Amino acid sequence: MSEYRLEDSLGFLVGRAGRSLSNSVQRTFSEHGFNATTEHWTVLVQLWNQDGLSQLELAERTGKDQASMSRLIQNMLNRELIYRRKDPVDARCKRIFLTENGKEQQERLMDLVNDTLEKATEGITEEDVAITKHVLKNIASKNLTTSWMKEE
Questions:
Q1: How many other C-beta atoms lie within 10 A of the C-beta of residue 152?
Q2: Distances from the Cα of 132 to the Cα of 104, 110, 126, 139, angstroms
Q3: How far from chain centre, in Å, is Cα 41?
Q4: Which has the closest alpha carbon to 52: 100, 104, 96?
């Protein structure tokens, strides 16, 4: 049996790359005085694209479980990035909306994230980045029960 090398394992490398990118984005947010985390970022992006999603929809779209999403939503409420409102059709459902503060941060945070990702992929061709994204989406889709990331 050949020696198993963790540093050559796909799962290990994907996890390490993900943490590295997340840490870089978080550091950039902090350096520029933004009171947002990379977890907040994932929710903000979803709401910038479609304001008024339910907590369940946000959990599915960000790959988080309900308990984690509840804590994250509460944290974002405390930071006045979002607010909740009852669904007009189903009072049991709460819809999540951006506050003016949450909306105002979009352009600057997008610029910071794009700059960070550009630095992280410096020296890597656009084609290689596109192939990497395609492969990662395919791998993720084999392990997801939701359809938002599946390749078409």
A1: 3
A2: 32, 21, 10, 11
A3: 6
A4: 96
